[in-house]
Amino acid sequence: MVKAVIFDLDxxxxxxxxxxxxxxxxLANSISIDFDHEFNEQLKGISRMDSLNKILNHGxxxxxxxxxxxxxxxxxxxxxxxxxxxxxxxxNIYPGIKELLNALKEDSMKIGVASASKNGPAILxxxxxxxxxxxxxxxxxxxxxxxxxxxxxxAADQLRVSPEECIGIEDSEAGxxxxxxxxxxxxxxxxxxxxxxxxxxxVLVNTSELVWSELTSAVSIR
Length: 222
Ligand code: BG6
Ligand code: MG
What we know:
Largest sheet: 6 strands, parallel
Oligomer: single chain
Radius of gyration: 17 Å
Bound molecules: 6-O-phosphono-beta-D-glucopyranose, magnesium ion
Order of helices and strands: EHHHHHEHEHEHEHEH
Distance between the termini: 12 Å
Shape: globular
CATH superfamily of the largest domain: HAD superfamily/HAD-like
C-alpha cells in the first residue's frame, strides 16, 4: 500500500535542471571547457562538488586546481545559479505537479522532497509550494549522495513510512538508481532510454502524465 510520494526537485517539479546546465556551462567556458546536454545527463542528481569534478575531468583539467580553487569555482557557479533562481515563479511549476500535489493531499498521502540541492528550500519558496511538503531532506544530513539510496531512505524515515510504501519520482539516472536501491517504486520522468536503462518501474515523457490514479494503478500491477 502506498503511503508517501517522494519527489526529486530539479527537473521534476520545475525546470531548474536547465538552469544548473546554463550556470555550469558558463563556469566551464570561463576556464576553456565545454560540454553539451548529453554530458549534462551525468550531472543530474549529483552534488555540486561532484559535478565540478566531473566537468574538470571531462575537460582534462582534473588535476589543475587546488581544493581552495575548486571551492571558488563551485561558488562562482552557485552565485550565477542563484541569480537565475530569483526569476522563478509559481507559473514555472511543471505541468501536472500542482494537480498531483493536490490529489496527494486529498488522499492523505505524505509528501517529501529528496533533492541533492542545497537551494531546494529557496526554490520551493519561489514556487510558493513549500506548505505541501511534510519533509524536505537536508542533503548535508546524508552520508552518500545519489545513486546511493541514503536520501530517499532518510525521507521515508522522516515521513515515518517504510520504503516499500513509497513512490519516488526522478528525472536523473542517478536518482532512479537511488530510488530502486531504497526499495521504492521508481517513476522516471524524461528521456525514456535513460530512465529505462536506470531501471525505472514506470517511465513518463512529461510531468503532465503524473496523474495520481494512474500512478496507483501502475504500482498495483507491478
Ligand atoms: C541536484 C541537481 O538536484 O542538485 C544537480 O540535479 C545539482 O544538477 C545538485 O548539482 C546540487 O545542487 P546545488 O543547488 O546544491 O548546487
Ligand atoms: Mg533532478
